[in-house]
Amino acid sequence: MANKRVVLSDVAQMAGLSKATVSRYLNNSIVLPQQTVQRIENAINTLGYRANSLARRLSMGGSETIGLVLPDIANPFFAELADAAEEAASEYKYSLVLCVTRNNLEKECQFIRWLDTRQVDGLLFTTNRPDNGQLYTELKDQRNVVLIDEDVPGCEVPKVFSDNVHGGELATQALIDAGHRRIAFVGGPDELMSVRERHQGYRQALAKGAIAYDPALVLYGDYDRVFGRQALDTLLALPTPPSAIFAASDYLALGLLDGVRARGLSVPGSLSLVGFDDAIYSDLITPRLSTIRQSARELGRTAVEALIQRLNDDASPNTVSRIPVAWIARDSVSAYPPKP
């Protein structure tokens, strides 16, 4: 008996009250005389009763929990976003549950369905995978969702993105200003909004610099380090290789650096390189990576604020918030042509 779990009926019996009365007291849905309150509290303390807080919150119509759906937490950018989102959610008295999908569609859909079972009150949703229509089908009737960093076309919910076009233009313009004219673009999947927008900025900078666009210098693939290295092999095999590369993420830039080192080359001596994200490691690697800063913290915090508004206001708009970006100059870009 010593190990028997104490339940609500045990508290009610010791306090000499009905189970319904004790339950309503714990849910703050009834006002009782102080003497009755003391009987309940004495019973709770004596028995060591620990209420099932999730069940209590669900009975009141919500879980006071937000889900954060991320494709990958090994990527420091997403880890920083998660940290900021948890901090912001806590300020609003919400718990945050981390849901890692590894870009698996079945897992993404599973977490969206948590909204139907009220396991979470709302979702902050990020994907790094082009939608084949199934995510839209799962999300189209959901209201308490905010999309972060990447779009799911057609979904009418609040969205928080970085200013990708401006970032792509800033990155490419920095390479043009350093004298480069043969500049490659290495991006993730070309169906993704972020990739298309960063490519758009790249093309805008080339046009402003009166530099001809060469499709052979544009490569798309997975948003990961392995593809970065593969892309370098492809670019260096061209009859006229690029002198500089704009990588649409710092993670891709790491893969490009892997390939450069494997060939006995160097950045920026053999090749100038620019990333996108300003992930925490960008200032720690050698060479320190010149990049576009998009604030993962600002993305996470802004998304939480948009979701809280959504949860508290039936009339909250389906806005698209754009987080500003900035050029961060470090050591991975040098002038071209190099000095003799």
TrEMBL record:
The keyword Ribosomal protein does not apply. Gene3D superfamilies: 3.40.50.2300, lambda repressor-like DNA-binding domains (1.10.260.40). It comes from the Bacteria. Transmembrane segments: none annotated. Residues 8-50 form the HTH cro/C1-type domain. One of its GO terms (molecular function) is DNA-binding transcription factor activity. Keywords: DNA-binding, Oxidoreductase, Peroxidase, Repressor, Transcription, Transcription regulation. InterPro entries: Cro/C1-type_HTH, HTH_LacI, Lambda_DNA-bd_dom_sf, Peripla_BP/Lac1_sug-bd_dom, Peripla_BP_I. Residues 6-60 form the HTH lacI-type domain. PANTHER family: HTH-TYPE TRANSCRIPTIONAL REPRESSOR PURR-RELATED, LACI-RELATED TRANSCRIPTIONAL REPRESSOR. This is Cytochrome-c peroxidase. It comes from Rouxiella badensis.
